[in-house]
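Each letter names a residue; the fold follows as tokens. Both lines appear below:
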Amino acid sequence: MLIPVTAPIENDDLVDRRVLVVDDDPTVSEVSTAYLQAAGFIVDRASDGFDALSSVERTPPDLIVLDRMLPGIDGIEVCRRIRKLGRTPIIMVTALGAEDERILGLEAGADDYLAKPFSPRELVLRVQSVLRRSVSEFMPESPFERGPFRLDPNARIVTREGEPLTLTVREFDLLAFLLKRPNQTFGREELLRAVWGWTYGDLSTVTVHIRRLREKIESDPTHPLILATVWGIGYRLDL
């Protein structure tokens, strides 16, 4: 097949990064693979949930593009199982447009999502965006402390009262953004632009990640004392 012309990877840290594409549709899998390879990625493929889990254990990828609807084990369950193994970034792909379906994927641990049908170029941009955040394209930053938290931006580690937090890529980015700006209120649109790099998108993405963060940093997530909701405006990290 013809290899598409795709913008090269600008960040050397992304060259030869390994991406696992999991999709039971051969056409989607083949086109996605071609575009990602043209952008400089090494691509592995899996056609069902069991194959995906085996591939992750056999050759751990740097990022996974995971279809929601799969034979055998569906994408949600695959995502949950991969999350138990580590923090590998996951982009969930779904043909189901309902908001509940997208939220389900995010709650299972996905860092990002794409709705089918999608542009292969958009897929490449999403993969590059998520990976850049996971490897950090910025100049080294010194660790710092805010309240009970200690953030090491370079190691991408956050501890709360000395205990490390297990965070996905987007959860880390969101908490890091707020820790650097304590006691400031941000709307969901602002957070979507600053943390995800999206100029538009589903605002429930932010809502789900706020909920997941509260489960990891609050003593009682149902009555948050640290990550507060400012009704009608957005969210604020109170420290």
Notes: Residues 1-7 have pLDDT under 50 and may be disordered. The longest helix spans residues 120-135. The chain has two domains: 13-135, 144-237.
